[in-house]
Amino acid sequence: MPAPQVIIIGRPNVGKSTLFNRLVGKKLALVDDQPGVTRDRRFGDAELLGLKFQIVDTAGWEDEDAESLPGRMRQQTEAALETAEVALFVMDARAGLTPLDEEIARWLRGTKVPIILLANKAEGRAGESGLLEAYSLGMGDPVAISAEHGEGMGDLFEALVPHLEPLQVEEEDEEFDEEALLRGPLKLAIVGRPNAGKSTLINKLLGQDRLLTGPEAGITRDSIAIDWEWTQQNGEVRPVRLIDTAGMRKKANVVEKLEKLSVADARHAVDFAEVVVLLLDATRGLEHQDLKIASMVLEEGRALMIAINKWDVAEGASSLFQGIRGALDEGLAQVRGVPLLAVSARTGKGLDEMIKAAFEIREAWSRRVPTAALNRWFDDALNANPPPAPGGKRIKLRYITQAKTRPPGFVLFGTRLDSLPESYKRYLINGIRRELGFDAVPIRLTLRSPKNPFAKG
């Protein structure tokens, strides 16, 4: 099924081609202050906060004889409307309504295609009067935008979703790309305090003394990336890029300039990783510095795992594991249930399970949920636990979309979102993790309310 079509209609020089370029993400349409630059229909693949459609730029509507060039351009616009799911009727808020705008509006009201009225160039106060005039067209509330500056795109998304969301299709090309990404090397960084056994662990995986190790803390100073192949139990070979990093001490203890550079390099390595394993020392347990490192990894948006090393010499293993599990859940409240494994870099215990879990969490970190499935879950979540009404005023949550992956990022649209309690945001984030297969990966939730076009800024 082809992507749904959205057509842009309006008189000359109201910013149709600028809007077209904004939605396709590149300058495909020629833009100039001179009216009539666009003469034929132009098609482009557009994406707005995860909503995908084909956008059609049309010539400026002019009231001319059908045999003239402007008249033939108008006929192209009329033909384009026949295959469109939605029409974006663009007027210039700074210039205000013109008789030609009113004529186009009369014609559009006679069509069966849903119309969204856009008041372009509405940034600042110069567009306020034109925005008010737009209400007189009888086409509902105008959406205030600035195609040139990208303002109002969230409100445009909200207006388009009811018409386009049921028509969304999963593109095979995108699925192929995501699969290819997951077939690529797993970028796995090993971080932790000095002398936790990071280099020893990597040497054990490699089966050779590739990295210098010893009882002295701080031997590793540079982040070292090593390409390796992991053989699964079924015999399949998976590529891995292992990244060994310098130990991260408390800032107060980082006094030497070289060590400061090493810690900065370790942070840099986290930026380039997909999954980060925080290695703990079983003989020392979980310390405050470990929680700081874990929080830093999550703030960077990386998938996090915790591995307790030196398990072969741990005392009171069961109580130690449960104690660390409880402390992690309390200290990392933003991501409960981070994978926790017991390993031994010296004997190799648990390393196979660690690599297997790293591939699984990368898959969750890269997951994209179709908009339709996401909003079905969203409706169920709202019915099960409606948002509160602070001061008796209802918070209205309308739509949610996944804007990005790696880490997963979601945009929630509604009104009075500044009053939405943090506890309700956590309820939604935990539901996304639990019910949509994101497990313990960091999730970003952005709140987006329609802007008041008359607010003084």
TrEMBL record:
GTP 1 binds at residues 10-17, 57-61, 120-123. The keyword ATP-binding does not apply. The keyword Metal-binding does not apply. Residues 4-168, 186-366 form the EngA-type G domain. GTP 2 binds at residues 192-199, 244-248, 309-312. PANTHER family: GTPASE DER. NCBIfam families: GTPase_EngA, small_GTP. GTPase that plays an essential role in the late steps of ribosome biogenesis. Belongs to the TRAFAC class TrmE-Era-EngA-EngB-Septin-like GTPase superfamily. EngA (Der) GTPase family. Associates with the 50S ribosomal subunit. This is GTPase Der.
